[in-house]
Amino acid sequence: MSRFLSSRFANLVAYTPGEQPRDQQYIKLNTNESPYPPSPEVIERINADEVKRLNLYPDPAGKSLKEKLAKLYGVEKENIFLSNGSDDILNFAFMAYCDEKRGVAFPEISYGFYPVYADLYHVTHVKLPLREDFSIDYKDYCNINKMVVIANPNAPTGMEIGLFEIEEILKSNPNYVVLIDEAYVDFGGTSAVGLVGKYPNLMVSMTYSKSRSMAGARLGFAIASKEIIEDLEKIKFSTNPYNINRLTLVAGEAAVDSNTYYKENAKKIIATRETTVKALKNLGFLVLDSKANFIFARHDKISGGEFYAEIKKKGILVRHFEKEKIRDFVRVTIGTDGQMDIFLQKTAEILNER
Ligand SMILES: *Cc1c(COP(=O)(O)O)cnc(C)c1O
Prior knowledge:
Blueprint (H helix, E strand, L loop, with lengths): L26 E2 L11 H6 L2 H5 L10 H11 L6 E4 L2 H12 L6 E4 L5 H8 L4 E4 L18 E5 L11 H10 L5 E4 L20 E6 L12 E5 L1 H14 L6 H12 L1 H24 L3 E2 L6 E5 L5 H10 L2 E2 L11 E5 L3 H16 L2
Parallel strand pairs: 1-11, 3-4, 3-5, 5-6, 6-7
Antiparallel strand pairs: 2-8, 7-8, 9-10, 10-12
């Protein structure tokens, strides 16, 4: 730290992303990317013609991508906000809707970025414990009179809450934004997007990073009332109007056009998840009920930290959180069938060595 840094940030602890090794020597099951490449249309449309236009700024309004997404989700383009990954949406929402007086509430065990944004903006935040079985008790969030942020399905548990519960939270906090982070919704979850017309305080965020195989392109979007979208646009145009680059906009449009491809991939991932869960249970693992492209599991014979280290030695990266209540678990991204076969084989070896 330099001596020039504002005291506002002196104690800030930044988010720690999962490992991103630059070589391909590991089977990478640690950051919930898709094991499948972008669709052929995406690959085709990021071509030399588009690269040649990189001297020109991109459309700051992202009009044609918004129109395509609006059609796909049955909303108006004024209900859509585009961002540089959905982390950007979270950033803007914390900036826009909370402060020292207007606090925020989110689950104690959830996406590790929420408390970082809360600290960044000096927002009073409450972390609400999950139930014993790692589910979210929606009643904890009713009448809480704070912004509410819930990942649904939740990370790293993979578990979901239903729309009834979300509606209760929305109804009982009419003066606060309820942000539902649907990064993993395409893997069998239930989306709250259909409620946007009914609840002006609902904001749903989604990403191209998981189900749409574009983590490297950085593209996310939010769906909400026109008024909420206006707020987000105001913040965007006050920070970085060109936050999505030309190539990503083109790729984003092509991805919407090839939606069926991604739906098929999501189906494959769900099927692989189910066979992996079964196999892990046969090996004696406790596996939480996942609606995401990852699973959260623990075994009595081995701690999460040890499992992470041992399977890394065998060439597979998974994610471990050195955090109270979940340190016995590991989070494993669902890869291809072939990758999961190797994962299961190495896992069985590790257990046999004990
Ligand atoms: C991966 C993830 C995101 C953000 O992903 P981006 O790559 O920034 O779009 C947001 N929320 C959760 C819960 C995630 O797991």
